[in-house]
Amino acid sequence: MERSEEILRGDLESLIAGYGSVVVGFSAGVDSSVVAVAAHVALGRHALAVTAATETITEEDLQLAGAIAARIGMRHELIRYNELEIDGYAENPANRCYFCKNTLYVRLAALARERGLAVVLDGANADDADDYRPGRQAAAEQGVRSPLLELGITKDEVRRLAASYGLPNHDKPSAPCLSSRVPYGTRITGEILERIGRAERALRDLGFHQLRVRHHDDLARVEIPVADFPKAVALAGEMERALREAGYRYVTLDLGGFRSGSLNDVLTQIELPVP
């Protein structure tokens, strides 16, 4: 039975109100945005949104996070650190996200203690259980709560909630960190992240909205929805020039189309590491 937005909002705000006070890990994605606005409605000044300003978040998402927080009137802070300096991260193992999330949650938990806030929240939703998510282990170890996941709220329901809250990113495509474009085992550098960021901005400027530029050394493997293939054919020359200017020598279109987490396909062929 489909749950109405009113029921979803009531359940979410009630659960968060029960925490008393919270820090929300806020990336400006639709999931964490819904958790943030629900926390603000439920707890007001007892809710703080915190965004990690690192090499792997785009400038567009940083600006969006600030704009959303200002729009809803929520307290918002940035924390800055270098993810590439985290032990085990730059080597890009299959459980890279564990190291990233563990560092983030440790910092958020320390900030919560400093401010006298009781609980750290993240934006994991019920659909996240369907993919390999090593960051969930970090959340469990650091005592992070995931209200969307705990209430069984799916991605589709998250987008409905975002629209009902009037959030401008309710239909924003998912945008995991830039490191997710780099195949496991390829060392991550600042130059690679900057190149990916330039390439994806160039494609968005050409009118593509849902996309990934997968980094394979000098080759950019572009993933867009199959429905956008005719546009890509028409703009092939412009796409190639833009990605060459971004730093790639070769440009290819993945005929499988856009699919979130496609680099996880190899995980059926390797032994997953244990942190």
The tally of strands reads 7
- The chain-level structural class is alpha/beta
Low-confidence stretches: 268-275
Measured by DSSP, the beta-strand proportion falls in: 5-15%
- Let me know the average pLDDT: 93
CATH superfamily of the largest domain: HUPs
Lateral arrangement of strands in the main beta sheet? 3-2-1-4
**Cα-to-Cα separation, first versus last residue:** 39 Å
Helix content: 40-55%
With helices defined by DSSP (H or I, 4 residues minimum), what is the helix count? 10
CATH class of the largest domain: Alpha Beta
CATH architecture of the largest domain: 3-Layer(aba) Sandwich
- In angstroms, what is the radius of gyration? 19 Å
Assign the CATH topology of the largest domain. Answer: Rossmann fold
Q: Helix and strand string, N-terminal first?
A: HEHEHEHEHHHHEEHHE
Question: What attributes does this structure have?
Answer:
single chain, 7 strands, alpha/beta, 4-stranded parallel beta sheet, Alpha-Beta Plaits, Rossmann fold, 3-stranded mixed beta sheet, 2 domains, 10 helices, 275 residues
